[in-house]
Amino acid sequence: MAQFGNLYLPYGVTLATPLQRFFAACIDIVFIYGSGFFVLFVILVINVFIPTENQFSTIYLTGICLFFILIPFVINLYFLEKEGQTIGKKIMKIKIVDESGAMMSTDRLIMLRQIVPALLFHIPILGFIFFLFDAILIFSNRRQCFHDRMAKTIVVNVHKS
């Protein structure tokens, strides 16, 4: 067993590096928001070339963009539930497991790793401090951000047998 801080990993299990996690997060952001922004850009460009009386309404534009953001979000949610991976984590060959190395329940994964931190991030001033604290903890011996510690999860490399 390998030891990281007070965390013991089963033989052959290695923690994901901070760089792997960073790139996975970047891929997820582009995957989720990129499609919505692309659609928004296309509709806005089309709007410029259509006479004023035929332009799309703001509500219609917002609905289309939200739909194209929701689809990748649901795809990521599906992969999180089935494999403990988002699209970014799949590409980077890492996944989320509990501290014992087992798959964890989706509700705990979503609530403690996604929703609670997202709510905390939106508190004025304190949210930014929490964001920095959460990110800096990735460089600890355990390589766990604060949201990992709250959910009792680790991000490990995927080894195909």
UniProtKB/TrEMBL annotation:
Membrane-crossing residue ranges in chain numbering: 22-46, 58-80, 119-140
Subcellular location: Cell membrane
Keywords, comma-separated and alphabetical: Cell membrane, Membrane, Transmembrane, Transmembrane helix
Keyword Cell membrane: yes
Membrane topology: Multi-pass membrane protein
Pfam family, one: RDD
Domain of life per record: Bacteria
RDD domain residues: 16-152
Key word Transmembrane helix present: yes
Designated name of the protein: RDD family protein
Organism: Leptospira yanagawae
